[in-house]
Amino acid sequence: MIKVGDSLPDVTLQEYSEVEGNGCSIGPNPVKVGEAAKGKTVAVFGLPGAFTPTCSAKHVPGYVQKYDELKKAGVDEIWCVSVNDAFVMGAWARDQKTGTKVRMLADGSADFAKATGLTLDLTGRGMGVRSTRYSMLVKDGKVQTLNLEAPGKFEVSDADTLLAQAKG
């Protein structure tokens, strides 16, 4: 499992972006994790799935709401990573009104989740292998802080916790 001091895995995620105003979309577009994190401070949070109750009601909205404060604390980008396809992540971004505040990155084949060891097996519930719920502060591709949630919990991967760590 990934830990503080480790580099993010060199895998490719997918991002689906909409062009404001005309309803057209761009993508899905590949996002090479190593390249995208290079030279930046990134707040990364992972969750089991788009449109799921806690993820939609608390996790994503918290990061959208704390965007300005995270930027002031030195965070360049906020990434939401989930084991869904780019089209679902794009629709969820629209639903959550993330705009340019949170990059909704699709880990469709769970490559990122598997490479980091942050997987959650939900096959018994018909959802397959997913990402566990976590947050991390990443500087220049290296993990500075890592907050792992216990199964079924939402206590340490929230935006407030990561914001306090970014300020610290």
Briefly characterize the structure.
It is an enzyme of class 1 (oxidoreductase). The chain is α+β, with helices and mostly antiparallel strands and 168 residues long.
Describe this structure in words.
The chain is an alpha+beta fold and 168 residues long. Helices cover 30% and strands 32% of the residues. It has a single domain, classed as Glutaredoxin, CATH 3.40.30. It has 6 helices and 9 strands; from the N terminus they run ββαβααβαβαββββα. The strands form 2 sheets. The chain has a 7-stranded mixed sheet. The chain has a two-stranded antiparallel sheet with strand order 6-7. Strand 4 (77-82), helix 4 (86-96) and strand 5 form a beta-alpha-beta unit. The radius of gyration is 15 Å and the shape is globular. One of its GO terms (cellular component) is cytoplasm. Its EC number is 1.11.1.27.
